[in-house]
Design a protein that fits this description.
The chain has 4 domains: about 1-120, Beta Polymerase, domain 2 (2-Layer Sandwich); about 130-210, Hydrophobic Seed Protein, CATH 1.10.110.30; about 220-290, no CATH class; about 310-355, no CATH class. Helix content is about 50%, strand content about 10%. The protein has 20 helices and 8 strands. The protein has helices at about 5-10, 25-30, 45-55, 90-95, 120-130, 135-140, 145-155, 160-170, 180-190, 195-205, 210-215, 230-235, 240-245, 250-265, 270-275, 275-280, 285-290, 310-315, 320-335, 345-355; strands at about 20-25, 40-45, 60, 70-75, 75-85, 105, 130, 160. A 6-stranded mixed beta sheet has the order 3-4-5-2-1-6. Strand 4 (about 70-75) and strand 5 (about 75-85) form a beta hairpin. Helix 7 packs parallel to helix 9, helix 7 (about 145-155) packs antiparallel against helix 10 (about 195-205) and helix 19 crosses helix 20.
């Protein structure tokens, strides 16, 4: 089946678009890689009109002083519409970041051959699994593309063309001029791909590690790839609070990183319980990454004290206050460690603790 037909089959809304619209970028790349893309990018002369041709529920992307794009979400599929640069598909593709993203399929017109517009050898590079720049000047237009190149290589298991890596390295400090949220998105994608060592290696080779992390990364320290996001950053970041504030990550990620860094040295049952199940479950992969024993016993994360504060007050005669809270906490820790297993044992424990 021709590419155009396959894309229209996946994204039926494309059939409603005008003749001057082109499918561009990642959806074509992903189809050539054998995947089923969930998002499709469209370049056209009037993005808003194209979006409205599919649905009246249009989401505006971008800011007033920049090129404006529009989005339509239909079920699990996302359609993004952007202006056709200089009203020319050739010039539009010339301004794109990497050859594997600089391909287009016209939505109308006669089908000749595979109907793929590929002036920069994108299909060749997809088949060779290579990230290759279209023009180094395009990195200057949007420095986030330097980090996006690393993300493409990591997520799709590509190599980076040497000239492209050299061009990225020469511009690595430009990443500090990019909005923090955009950088955070790319880093999240990079370290959610289960290719931890490849990610660290490419960030070091590109020089992006120093402006992003504040120091050089050392790929040789790590021995496995399956490391989740919070665990990855816990290994690479010296100061989680400062890092997440700089790049506008969530408070929950900051908390996870801080707990994981402490758990490296103290992974007792109580410490794991305090971290919470979702965080604690990341610790074995983190330990494996640095060559440490990852055979860790996990606590029962559903554990709650057998006795409430009121129960303890009634049993001990203690008034509400810090001492009562200390006994309740001590009881919980004893339960987590398996030292107190029944309600009667809990009553004996608090009686002894209050004596």
């Amino acid at each position: 089946m021709p590419l155009r037909d396959r894309l229209v089959q996946l994204f039926p809304g494309l059939a409603k678009l005008p003749a001057d619209a082109y499918i561009v970028g990642g959806a074509i790349r992903d189809l050539l890689l054998g995947g089923n893309p969930a998002d499709v990018d469209v370049a056209c002369s009037d993005p808003l009109a194209c979006a409205r041709a599919i649905s009246p529920r249009v989401i505006r992307l971008g800011k007033e002083d920049h090129l404006t794009a529009y989005r339509i979400v239909l079920g699990e599929h996302v359609y993004d519409f952007a202006p056709l640069l200089d009203n020319s598909i050739d010039r539009d593709l010339r301004r794109r970041d990497f050859t594997v993203n600089a391909m287009a399929v016209p939505l109308e017109g006669p089908l000749e051959g595979d109907e793929l517009l590929d002036p920069h050898g994108g299909r060749r590079d997809v088949e060779a699994r290579v990230v290759r720049m279209v023009d180094p000047q395009n990195f200057d237009d949007d420095p986030l593309r330097t980090l996006k190149g690393i993300r493409l290589a990591v997520r799709h298991r590509f190599t980076v063309d040497p000239e492209t890596m050299s061009a990225i390295r020469a511009r690595c400090w430009l990443i500090t001029k990019v909005s923090a949220e955009r950088v955070a998105y790319e880093l999240s994608a990079i370290f959610s791909a289960n290719e931890f060592r490849k990610a660290v290696t490419l960030l070091r080779e590109s020089g992006l590690d120093v402006p992003i992390f504040g120091h050089e990364l050392v790929p040789s320290r790590y021995v496995v790839d399956d490391v989740p996001l919070a665990a990855s950053l816990a290994l690479l970041v010296d100061d989680p609070a400062a890092f997440t504030e700089r790049w506008r990550f969530s408070d929950s990620l900051t908390r996870d990183m801080q707990f994981l860094r402490r758990l490296i040295d103290d992974h007792s049952l109580v410490a794991l319980y305090d971290a919470g199940e979702s965080t604690a479950r990341q610790l074995p992969s983190l330990l494996r990454a640095i060559g440490k024993d990852a055979d860790i016993a996990m606590p029962d994360f559903t554990t709650t004290p057998f006795l409430t504060g009121n129960d303890i007050a009634a049993a001990t005669g203690l008034p509400p206050g810090p001492r009562l809270g200390q006994i309740k906490r001590a009881l919980l820790e004893a339960q987590i460690r398996g030292e107190v297993k029944t309600h009667d044992e809990a009553q004996a424990f608090v009686a002894n603790a209050s004596a």
